[in-house]
């Protein structure tokens, strides 16, 4: 795993400490990695929604749409 050195503002550092103190996370690194992971997932969903809006209507059944989505997730290593 790559190591990085980053600085936090005092309020952000206190928030990170509180997350660790609550025992929800084992370290500040776990908190930051979880936040990044969530941001990446949010971006993935946003892109999918934009593509869907641009794609227009479909004649596919819900089952076909689900199968295609699962296929894409597997291909992208998300499932």
Global shape:
elongated
Helical region count? Answer: 3
Overall radius of gyration: 19 Å
Structural class: mainly alpha
Q: Tell me about the biggest sheet?
A: none
Instruction: Note the beta-strand portion.
Output: under 5%
Mean pLDDT: 91
Number of domains: 1
Low-confidence blocks of residues: none
Strand tally, please? 0
Cα(first) to Cα(last) distance is: 22 Å
Key features?
single chain; 79 residues; mainly alpha; 3 helices; 68% helix; elongated
Gist of the model:
This protein has three helices and no strands.
Describe this entry's structure for a reader.
The structure is a single chain. Helix content is 68%, strand content 0%. The protein has helices at residues 10-21, 28-55, 62-75. It has 79 residues and is mostly helical. It starts with 9 loop residues before the first helix and ends with a helix. The protein has one domain.
Helix-strand blueprint:
Layout: H1 10-21, H2 28-55, H3 62-75
